[in-house]
Amino acid sequence: MERHTYFLPRYDDDGRMVNEGHALATEAGIPHLLRRTYRHPASPAGDGDYDFLTYFECDDAHVATFHQVCAALRDLKRNPEWRFVREGPTWQDWPGVWVNELHGDYLAYERLAEARARAAIRRSG
């Protein structure tokens, strides 16, 4: 099977859930985490490069939720899709400007998230 077939929950022939898949494993974070994915210009990326970088933000009160979601994604029993993932480094604890401080200005948030993600890429390289 291909990676995308594990995104949704999987059920056995009797209708019992076998695993949650990516969608349900991340459910706890949906109302609390902001996510932006930056894809490599070439798909798939070349050897040694990542296909994408994912940037997250959350209020300090939901940092534990972020870690809970990451643990759920990495749990192969809950989310077999993770077998296809080559995980890179995780950076955290950057000074935060949260979406509610941007007064709903989604474009300002997009520019901020993009600038932070590019800075992370430069620091890693």
Structure description:
Helices cover 29% and strands 14% of the residues. The chain has a two-stranded antiparallel ribbon with strand order 1-2. The chain contains 3 helices and 4 strands. β1 (10-11) and β2 (17-19) form a beta hairpin. With 125 residues, it is an alpha+beta fold.
Side-by-side strand order of the widest sheet: 1-2
Instruction: Give the end-to-end Cα distance, rounded to a whole number of Å.
Output: 33 Å
The structural domain count equals: 1
Mean pLDDT: 78
- Tell me the Rg in angstroms: 16 Å
> Count of helical segments?
3
Structural class: alpha+beta
Largest sheet: 2 strands, antiparallel
How many distinct beta strands? 4
- Which descriptor suits the 3D outline? globular
Helix fraction bin: 25-40%
Give the tags.
single chain; 125 residues; alpha+beta; globular
What is the topological layout?
Layout: E1 10-11, E2 17-19, H1 21-25, E3 34-39, E4 52-57, H2 63-74, H3 106-124
Describe the structure in brief:
With 125 residues, this protein is of the alpha+beta class. Helices cover 29% and strands 14% of the residues.
